[in-house]
Write a structure and sequence with these properties.
The complex is a heterodimer of chains A (199) and B (265). Chain A is mostly helical and 199 residues long. Helices cover 74% and strands 0% of the residues of chain A. Chain A is built from ten helices and no strands. In chain A, α1 runs parallel beside α8 (130-160), α3 (35-64) packs across α4 (73-95) and α3 runs antiparallel to α8. The longest helix of chain A is centred in the C-terminal third of the chain and has 31 residues, at 130-160. The model of chain B has no long low-confidence stretch (mean pLDDT 85). Chain B is 34% helix and 11% strand. Chain B is α+β, with helices and mostly antiparallel strands and 265 residues long. In chain B, the strands form four sheets. Chain B has a two-stranded antiparallel ribbon. Chain B has helices at 2-27, 34-42, 56-66, 77-88, 123-127, 145-149, 174-178, 203-209, 219-223, 248-252; strands at residues 99-102, 155-158, 161-164, 184-187, 194-195, 229-232, 235-238, 258-259. Classes of the chains: A mainly alpha (199), B alpha+beta (265). Chain A binds chain B through residues 63-64, 67-69, 72, 75-76, 79-80, 82-83, 86-87, 90-91, 93-95, 162, 165, and chain B through 2, 5-6, 9-10, 13-14, 17-18, 20-21, 24-25, 28-30, 120, 124, 128.
Chain lengths: 199, 265
């Protein structure tokens, strides 16, 4: 259990996908303008990450790996994730309209999001088993949410400020993102000390 | 051999995915109201947000699903409202013409200046510097942030003050959002007067700054037969629900701050 929690919190804080690994920057900058849309997007990401891992892990371990086709993981995973997201969207639109409306445009946006692909591939690089992979995916999603929520607060301040004309909009947002990312460097090593597991 | 196997495998995965999606789309299809697309086609597509919705498509959706009024589009005007009404099968109702009014008469020579501003040509920048070069803290700066914001060429700066061409103005409110002094108001009553000043300071101070500012003398308030005009925070405010457009306030105002829309320029 400690091992699973270690994986979860490592993904949230130390190996944060957005602020440490720099994956999924596009939605991070695009959807973090408002808190509620940031939360909506993050929930959709958590949802898709866990589901994508649940599907791709057996696919890799049972089909690709035994046949020596591990190098196909990127292309196969992209297809599987894209189909999965579209399928979920159709199902939600039909049976869970309220959830569909609250996820809104964010669900299709995730289709080709690199942090979802990153999670599914990283699970094998780290040699996680099925349960560990699911915890890793949930932690990555939660880390994405933490980054989005934190940054929507930062962004509110940045937008209220009055930077020079050439810094307005995206440039000053990127500078703010860099500083926020720098603060996450401070978490390095904290998890191995807490859980007593050598990193 | 392994290449062939790899190609076959990816093809199978792709075909499987396609089959799943086709079946899903077929059996779990949700009927969208075709009127949404029809109304979106009627709208001008400027996506200005003047109707209060996120864009033309969002407004079309609101009309169909939550019964939003069909005459909200200021850009398309009455013709557009009639088309939407035809799609929805309802009466169009009168489309209300709304246009922007710059609530300031502080042209050059009317309003004094505090200092000579030589910074970049933007009201927002000038307003950062002691509230701008104009002596009046609530006056038009005249560097044309509203002119830049207007997509319809309806605003120009004349004599150091922004002027709205009411005929060209579609009432989208982009200038209102761009004005750092917040002195652009939306007006929709062609026969009712407008208070052309936003200065909240006491009369004695206003007189020193500008010859055409509201000095909060309350003559309009005392003389209004309908009690529609009130001095709030040292500036006259008109309640258009009560105002009949009789024009008494216009006659009584010693500073000629209150004007009919037709007389503004």
């Amino acid at each position: 259990m400690a091992n699973l929690l270690y994986i979860f919190f490592t993904m949230v804080l130390v190996q944060n996908y957005v602020l440490v690994k720099f994956l999924g920057i596009c939605p991070f900058l695009g959807v973090s303008k408002k808190l509620d849309s940031a939360v909506g997007m993050s929930l959709a990401v958590i949802f898709v990450m866990v589901l994508a891992t649940a599907v791709t892990w057996p696919l890799y371990a049972l089909v690709l790996e035994p046949n020596g086709l591990g190098y196909l993981q990127t292309i196969v995973f992209i297809i599987v994730i894209a189909v999965l997201v579209q399928f979920i969207e159709i199902v939600l639109h039909k049976y869970m309209v309220s959830l569909y409306n609250s996820l809104g445009v964010y669900l299709p946006l995730i289709t080709t999001n690199c942090c979802v692909l990153g999670v599914t591939i990283l699970n094998f690089t780290n040699g996680y088993n099925y349960v560990e992979s699911l915890f890793c995916a949930a932690g990555s999603g939660a880390g994405f949410m933490l980054a989005m929520v934190l940054f929507s607060g930062v962004r509110k301040r940045v937008d209220a400020g009055n930077p020079p004309e050439c810094f307005k909009g995206l440039p000053i947002t990127l500078v703010a993102a860099a500083i926020t990312s720098l603060s996450f460097m401070g978490f390095g090593g904290i998890m191995s000390s807490i859980f007593g597991i050598a990193a | 051999m392994s290449i062939a196997f790899a190609i076959i495998l990816v093809t199978i995965v792709g075909i499987l995915g396609a089959v799943i999606l086709v079946l899903a789309a077929k059996y779990m299809h949700v009927e969208e109201d075709p009127r949404v697309a029809e109304i979106t086609a009627c709208l001008p597509g400027a996506n200005c947000g003047g109707c209060g919705y996120a864009g033309c498509a969002d407004y079309a959706k609101a009309v169909v699903e939550s019964g939003a009024p069909v005459n909200k589009c200021a850009v398309g005007g009455a013709a557009c409202a009639a088309q939407i009404a035809a799609v929805m099968g309802v009466e169009a109702g009168a489309s209300v013409k709304t246009w922007a009014v710059v609530a300031c008469q502080g042209e050059e020579g009317v309003c004094k200046s505090k200092f000579e501003y030589q910074g970049m040509s933007s009201c927002a920048a000038a307003a950062q510097l002691f509230g701008g070069p104009s002596a009046c803290a609530f006056g038009c700066i005249g560097l044309g942030d509203c002119v830049k914001a207007c997509q319809f060429g309806a605003i120009e700066v004349v004599n150091g003050k922004a002027r709205v061409n009411a005929d060209k103005c579609v009432g989208c409110g982009a200038c209102k959002a761009a004005c750092p002094k917040k002195i652009i108001w939306m007006h929709s009553e062609p026969k009712k007067p407008v208070v052309m000043c936003a200065n909240h300071e006491l009369g004695a101070k206003v007189i020193k700054e500008c010859t055409a500012g509201c000095i909060a003398c309350r003559l309009c308030e005392k003389n209004c037969p309908e009690e529609a005009i009130k001095v709030v925070g040292n500036v006259a405010r008109i309640d258009y629900a009560k105002c009949t457009g009789c024009g008494t306030c216009i006659e009584k105002c010693p500073k000629k701050v209150i004007k009919m829309p037709a007389d503004i320029h």
